[in-house]
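Per reviewer request, we include the raw input and output of the structure prediction for the construct analysed in the revised manuscript.
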Amino acid sequence: MRIIFLGPPGSGKGTYSSRLSPLLGIPHISTGDLFREHIKNETELGKKAKEYIDKGQLVPDEITIEMLKERIEEKDCENGFILDGYPRTLNQAKALDEITKIDIVINLNIPEEVLIKKIAARRICRNCGDIYNLADIKFGNVRMPPMLPKKEGICDKCGGELYQRDDDREEVVRERLVVYRKQTEPLIKYYREKGILKDVDIVGGPDIMVPKIMDVIKNFVKE
């Protein structure tokens, strides 16, 4: 099963992907993790990507797709994978179609005000990248309890320091959402016309949503 998670910043793509990965027996692939791994290992692709990242520029699609192509050819991807953070644009989706077939696209929907509150409360481990959230959200039918570390400011997994990203501030988040909508609306239309896009409304935390998303995937396979 080859799965893509779409959704605005802070919608839970990384959280749900990482939790569904062991349940489905397929790897969770984040383009952000791919960049970090290649840069850390000083591969040729990593060196090229670092040049753009160091200048504050977007890594060109051809570098990202080459990293992705190498990754999905590894043995653990034989039965599929979950893509988180790619594609972001229609051009990227078409480039992806040239190297693999996607089975299902999960499009996460969440109210904008919930997103802003959720992102502003997000904390990330500086060491391993694990994600926590300080907000206790009650908005309409949405109930999202906090995802707190056992010890304030410290990651449960590795003991690393938790921090707030600069682009998680409210004014930046609103700008990111505008960019996301502009980029992603054609992408959503593209996959919907292919008949492989499934919308999922986020109404709770991972304990509620992971089983719901799992059911969407299982039901899609039966169709």
